């Protein structure tokens, strides 16, 4: 399998290069040059690690053997606490919830990041290299990335988070880790500011001269293909294989829903993908009427979705532009300059083939948490609730699967305000509440952050 960049279709790179780089030198995102086909009959009796091996092996080329990849997959998912890894909960009739919070940090980011951390280790040892991992987080990515990379000899990891704009538990899951190779940076800004700094660092020539940089956000292609596994896994857990599926996905950086989309391109029988946003509704506006314009980021009770610039949407635009990197580059440069771009014509028509969307404010989110607790005795975190509110309005004769992206105990105050009780806390969260924290506060300035990184690698 060869890879090109969304901004340079002439690139021709192997998987072992693009996983380490994460972001292409031209600022684009790596994409495979073809889509493999998964025969659904071949995967029906596989375990989760076997399924992951089957899917990922299509993308790695000859950079790793199938037996080595299988070993890594088995090691990766051995740390998850549920015997089904990602269980599918049948709420009512054809209404399901795919629980993706049974990993070390209790969020869906564990599923791709534990795999990515182990793949990093494999390729770095093989190439005798060290890397500096840089990432931005709106909440859960940071702790999952840190858990996946902590104490690894050939990795230093720097995670930027927006100061006072994650939940306290999300922050402490990051800042209570004392490993010498972990650096937490609180930025005086929002998530988009953090993400913009990371993008500038990746094209910084003087930083690249002294270290090899790698991305751990969902801009890293290895994360997207690792996330595609649980969409196939959800289908395998349904009893009715004669129907197509609707997935309802809480969306921030567009990585999760794009992983669902490529699952459909690989052969998963998906009817429609429903994109759920909170009040930061740029993806809803874009998909529904082409209005891709930036607005002020709002703080909500679903903070991991408090995003206006959804980086992975660039991959979808590249596809919708028939993989024309010149047109994509023009579009993204115009959006960056003008803070808006009107999606129309064939591009918008292509988007509507796959996606529908809805925006959910805090009031509806809270009422949905209450409804699912009272009606189904199910406690959903605020991000999950944005998708559950959409699922209630879908055709009951279809198989509708909503993604539960985080454990409710990570957002205790929002749960309490919605249903009057605090969710039960897993032991792993209880332990960190009184831990000392290790992080530094820096201004919203890429040069300041770059100098901090240079002084600590």
Description:
This protein has 457 residues and is α/β, with parallel strands linked by helices. The chain has a domain at 83-104 and 221-419: Rossmann fold (3-Layer(aba) Sandwich), CATH 3.40.50.1100. The protein is 44% helix and 17% strand. The protein is built from 19 helices and 16 strands. The chain has helices spanning 15-21, 48-56, 66-77, 110-127, 140-149, 168-175, 191-202, 205-208, 221-237, 255-266, 282-289, 313-320, 325-338, 345-354, 362-376, 382-391, 412-419, 427-432, 446-456; strands at 3-5, 8-13, 30-32, 88-92, 95-99, 131-136, 155-162, 182-187, 213-215, 245-250, 270-277, 291-293, 340-342, 355-359, 399-404, 440-442. A 6-stranded mixed beta sheet has the order 4-5-15-10-11-14, with helices on both faces. Strand 1 and strand 2 form a beta hairpin. Helix 2 (48-56) crosses helix 9 (221-237) and helix 3 (66-77) packs across helix 4 (110-127). The model has no long low-confidence stretch (mean pLDDT 93).
Mean pLDDT: 93
| Helical proportion, percent range | 40-55%
Give the number of DSSP strands.
16
How would you name the oligomeric state of the polypeptide chains in this document?
Answer: single chain
Q: Which descriptor suits the 3D outline?
A: globular
Number of helices: 19
Give the CATH architecture of one domain: 3-Layer(aba) Sandwich
CATH class of one domain: Alpha Beta
User: Termini separation (Å)?
Assistant: 33 Å
Rg: 20 Å
Write the layout of secondary structure elements.
Blueprint: E1 3-5, E2 8-13, H1 15-21, E3 30-32, H2 48-56, H3 66-77, E4 88-92, E5 95-99, H4 110-127, E6 131-136, H5 140-149, E7 155-162, H6 168-175, E8 182-187, H7 191-202, H8 205-208, E9 213-215, H9 221-237, E10 245-250, H10 255-266, E11 270-277, H11 282-289, E12 291-293, H12 313-320, H13 325-338, E13 340-342, H14 345-354, E14 355-359, H15 362-376, H16 382-391, E15 399-404, H17 412-419, H18 427-432, E16 440-442, H19 446-456
Helix pairs in contact: 2-3, 2-9, 3-4, 4-5, 4-9, 5-6, 9-10, 15-16, 15-17
């Amino acid at each position: 399998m060869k890879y090109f960049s969304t901004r340079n279709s002439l690139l021709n790179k192997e998987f072992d290069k693009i996983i380490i780089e994460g972001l292409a030198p031209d600022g684009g995102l790596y994409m495979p040059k073809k889509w493999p086909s998964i025969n659904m009959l071949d995967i029906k009796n596989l375990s989760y690690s076997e399924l992951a091996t089957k899917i990922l092996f299509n993308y790695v080329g000859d950079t790793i053997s199938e037996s080595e990849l299988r070993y890594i997959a088995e090691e990766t998912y051995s740390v998850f606490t549920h015997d089904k890894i990602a269980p599918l909960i049948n709420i009512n009739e054809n209404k399901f919830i795919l629980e993706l919070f049974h990993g070390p940090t209790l969020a869906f980011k564990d599923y791709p990041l534990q795999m990515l951390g182990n793949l990093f280790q494999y390729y770095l040892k093989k190439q005798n290299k060290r890397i500096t991992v840089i990432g931005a987080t709106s909440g859960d990515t940071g702790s999952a990335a840190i858990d996946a990379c902590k104490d690894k000899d050939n990795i230093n990891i720097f995670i930027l988070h927006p100061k006072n704009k994650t939940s306290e538990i999300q922050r402490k899951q990051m800042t209570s880790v004392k490993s010498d190779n972990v650096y937490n940076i609180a930025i005086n800004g929002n998530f988009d500011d953090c993400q913009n700094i990371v993008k500038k660092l990746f094209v910084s020539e003087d930083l690249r001269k002294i270290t090899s940089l790698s991305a751990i956000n969902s801009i890293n292609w290895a994360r997207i293909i690792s996330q595609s596994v649980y969409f196939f896994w959800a289908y395998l857990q349904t009893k009715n294989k004669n129907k197509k599926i609707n997935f309802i996905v809480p969306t921030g950086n567009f990585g999760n829903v794009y992983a669902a989309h490529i699952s459909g391109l690989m052969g998963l029988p998906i009817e429609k993908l429903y994109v759920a946003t909170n009040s930061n509704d740029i993806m809803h506006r874009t998909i529904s009427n082409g209005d891709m314009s930036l607005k002020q980021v709002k703080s909500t009770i679903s903070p991991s979705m408090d995003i206006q610039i959804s980086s992975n949407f660039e991959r979808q635009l590249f596809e919708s532009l028939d993989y024309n990197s010149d047109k994509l580059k023009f579009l993204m440069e115009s959006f960056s300059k003008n803070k808006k771009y009107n999606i129309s014509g064939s591009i918008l028509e292509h988007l509507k083939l796959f996606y529908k969307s809805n925006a959910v404010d805090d009031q509806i989110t809270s009422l949905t948490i209450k409804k699912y607790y009272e009606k189904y005795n199910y406690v959903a975190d605020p991000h999950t609730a944005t998708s559950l509110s959409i699922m209630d309005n879908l055709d009951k004769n279809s198989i509708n699967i909503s993604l539960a992206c985080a454990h409710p105990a990570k957002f205790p105050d929002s749960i309490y305000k919605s249903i009057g009780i605090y969710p039960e806390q897993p032991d792993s969260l209880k332990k960190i509440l009184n831990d000392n924290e290790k992080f530094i506060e820096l201004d919203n300035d890429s040069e300041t952050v770059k100098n901090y990184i240079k002084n600590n690698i």
